[in-house]
Design a protein that fits this description.
Blueprint (H helix, E strand, L loop, with lengths): L4 H16 L18 E11 L3 E11 L3 E8 L5 E8 L2 E6 L2 E7 L15 H6 L4 E8 L2 E8 L14 E8 L4 E8 L2 E12 L15 E3 L3 E8 L11 E3 L8 E14 L2 E15 L2 E8 L12 E3 L5 E7 L2 E8 L2 E7 L3 H8 L3 E3 L4
Parallel strand pairs: 6-12
Antiparallel strand pairs: 1-2, 1-11, 2-3, 3-4, 4-5, 5-6, 7-8, 8-9, 9-10, 10-11, 13-15, 14-22, 15-16, 16-17, 17-21, 18-19, 19-20, 20-21
Length: 354
């Protein structure tokens, strides 16, 4: 019986790409990153001074890599007043007493799961953060880093007037945040209880609130086979031999539409490959540069056949974006810059054939 022609062509295409890969990947060798903890629950006391004191309780529960609950309650309250719940790719928010269904997501760290810890030394190196000392919070020792603003704000150099001091422990858990503006305290978030037991799935059930849909747009996420290169009409970057025990576990195409006077129109198409190793995930995202241009970044570096990339940071970790033909290819993970670069250097272009 003859073999499947399409399968053979896909395999040959990948083999040829591997053969063309240079021995040097323009990235120094690095050891495997440490494994992250699988789950945790942190209860914070939050003091907001704007200008009167308001006290709330924030509960963050995480089961990595893709489940979380980040909910805020009135002090002593039992019903959340705001927050998010991530159930795998599904995202919900609590707004004005209702549960809003945002639909599926192609990628993104679960809400409340702070993954910037491994990249904090890079932020210090790039003068985007300062190491201020150590503290004891909820019975755990943590290192205080000064950033330009609170978690969720864009990362930028620290300037006079505003800053946020983040205390992060050896497991990467965010234990406190002190946000000040012009010498005045705006908000103090401090952990009162920390439990690193892996939560059960029941912890991520959305709150029992009236539900409503997002009226302004939606995203459709289609699962694609990981055994062949997607038919995009362009080269597609993939890691045939991912390092450190990571493996390709999922490939999706996310089509985002928005409402216009003429009806729904597609505003974005993204292809997302997810490489996982237990609780840790590295994503490789392909997007149209007209929608997602390569950002300026805080430094540039080379990584294998992708060439020159631009480094950025978010609460999900470090990211490097590359102009790769007709794509912007972004590699992101809860790692330091050297390891994101080393992973990016393993990517090679493949081509789908019909």
């Amino acid at each position: 019986m003859l073999p499947n022609t399409r399968t053979v062509v896909n395999v040959l295409t990948l083999v040829i790409a591997l053969a063309l890969t240079a021995c040097s990947h323009d990235a120094p060798r690095v050891v495997a990153p440490a494994r992250s903890i699988t789950g945790f629950r942190i209860v914070y006391r939050v003091e907001t001074h704007a200008p009167d004191l308001q006290v709330t309780r924030r509960e963050v529960t995480v089961h990595r890599p893709d489940q979380s609950s980040d909910l805020t309650y009135a002090d002593g309250g039992t019903q959340p007043t705001s927050g998010f719940v991530g159930q795998g790719t599904r995202l919900y928010s609590v707004e004005a007493g209702a549960l809003v269904d945002h639909g599926d997501r192609a990628t993104g760290a679960p809400p409340g799961d702070y993954r910037l810890g491994p990249a904090l030394p890079d932020l210090v190196r790039l003068h985007l953060a300062r190491r201020m000392g150590t503290e004891r919070v909820a019975g755990r020792t943590c290192i205080v880093y000064r950033l330009a603003g609170p978690i969720g704000d864009p990362i930028k150099p620290v300037a006079a007037g505003e800053h946020a001091d983040e205390c992060v422990d050896s497991q990467g858990l965010l234990l406190s945040e002190r946000w000040e503006l012009d010498g005045k305290l705006l908000r103090l978030t401090r952990a009162e209880r920390v439990d690193t037991t892996v939560p059960s799935d029941a912890a991520f059930a959305p709150p029992d609130l009236p539900r409503r849909q997002v009226p302004i747009g939606f995203t459709v996420v289609d699962t694609l086979p990981t055994t062949k290169v997607p038919s995009t009409g362009q080269q597609y970057w993939l890691a045939p031999a991912p390092p450190w025990g990571f493996g390709l576990v999922k490939r999706v195409r996310a089509i985002t539409s928005g409402q216009t006077p003429d009806g729904p129109q597609v505003s974005d198409v993204a292809y997302v490959d997810t490489y996982a190793r237990g609780a840790d995930v590295i994503t490789v995202v392909h997007r149209d540069p007209s929608v997602e241009p390569v950002p300026k970044g805080f430094e540039t570096l080379r990584a294998g056949r992708l060439g020159t990339g631009h480094v950025t940071f978010s609460t999900a970790g470090a990211a490097i974006a590359f102009a790769a033909g007709k794509w912007t290819v972004t590699v992101e993970g809860p790692l330091d810059v050297a390891r994101v670069r080393a992973f990016a250097a393993t990517l090679v272009p493949g081509f789908a054939r019909t």
